[in-house]
């Protein structure tokens, strides 16, 4: 089995008209630019659910959403989605009780639950601490990557950025390191075969 590394994508999200019977459509997809646009029907879904569906679909095709940009929406919700997406978290608005928190799942990405009526700017401010509390192993791995980036003089920054994105996406640093090691071994084997 060949290991795959997902390609990062920035997803712009806006309200609009979708295909008949669909809550959301992915449009203007450009693998070369690493961008796509998600249009959702606000009468059929909310932006959090639309992004969750788009992420699941894109993941099956080898893409990981690294940034969500809400177009034409308020500054509070836009900032919340952008910051959550940088941590590769889905956003569930109006769910959970108490304070905003990050929840993890076995079979899908982690999510930031923001209870109904919660101030979105405050929820955005609480996000880093909530993420660290729910995923300490991920935060430790990201700190180790940051230290390595400071020490390597920029030689492997791109590879470390890929690793960081994959760790945020999967929540499993060990699996990511195993995948990257396998990919590097496959690449090394292919080079050896070509030169022989």
Topology:
Blueprint lengths: L6 E9 L8 E7 L4 E6 L6 H14 L2 E8 L4 H12 L3 E4 L7 E3 L7 E4 L5 H15 L1 H16 L5 H14 L2 H23 L1
Parallel strand pairs: 1-3, 1-4, 5-7
Antiparallel strand pairs: 2-3, 6-7
Briefly, what is this?
By secondary structure, the protein is of the alpha/beta class. It has helices at 47-60, 75-86, 120-134, 136-151, 157-170, 173-195, and strands spanning 7-15, 24-30, 35-40, 63-70, 90-93, 101-103, 111-114. Strands 2-3-1-4 form a 4-stranded mixed β-sheet. It has a 3-stranded mixed β-sheet with strand order 5-7-6.
Report on this model:
The chain has 6 helices and 7 strands. It is an alpha/beta fold. It has 2 domains: 7-133, no CATH class; 137-195. The strands form 2 sheets. A 4-stranded mixed beta sheet has the order 2-3-1-4. The chain has a 3-stranded mixed beta sheet with strand order 5-7-6. A hairpin with a 4-residue loop joins strand 2 and strand 3. Helix 3 (120-134) packs across helix 4 (136-151). The longest helix has 23 residues, at 173-195. The mean pLDDT is 89.
Report the uncertain regions.
Answer: none
Q: How many runs of DSSP E, i.e. beta strands? A: 7
What is the string of helix and strand elements?
EEEHEHEEEHHHH
The major β-sheet equals: 4 strands, mixed
The percent range for strand residues is 15-25%
Please give the share of residues in helix. Answer: 40-55%
Structural class: alpha/beta
Strand order of the largest sheet: 2-3-1-4
Q: What is the overall silhouette?
A: globular
């Amino acid at each position: 089995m060949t290991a795959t590394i997902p390609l990062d994508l920035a997803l712009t999200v806006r309200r609009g008209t979708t295909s008949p019977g669909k809550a959301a459509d992915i449009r203007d997809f450009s693998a070369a630019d690493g961008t796509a646009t998600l249009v959702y029907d606000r009468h059929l879904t909310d932006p959090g659910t639309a992004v969750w569906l788009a992420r699941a679909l894109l993941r099956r095709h080898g893409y990981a959403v690294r940034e969500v940009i809400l177009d034409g929406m308020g500054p509070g919700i836009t900032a919340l989605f952008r910051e959550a997406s940088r941590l590769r978290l889905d956003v569930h608005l109006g769910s959970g009780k108490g304070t905003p928190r990050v929840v993890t799942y076995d079979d899908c990405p982690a999510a930031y639950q923001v209870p109904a009526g919660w101030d979105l700017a405050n929820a955005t401010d609480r996000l880093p601490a909530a993420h660290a509390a729910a995923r300490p192993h991920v935060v430790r791995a990201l700190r180790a990557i940051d230290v390595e980036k400071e020490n390597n003089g920029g030689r492997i920054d791109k590879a470390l950025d890929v690793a960081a994105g994959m760790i945020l996406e999967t929540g499993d640093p060990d699996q990511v390191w195993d995948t990257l090691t396998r990919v590097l071994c496959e690449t090394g084997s292919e080079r050896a075969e070509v030169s022989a």
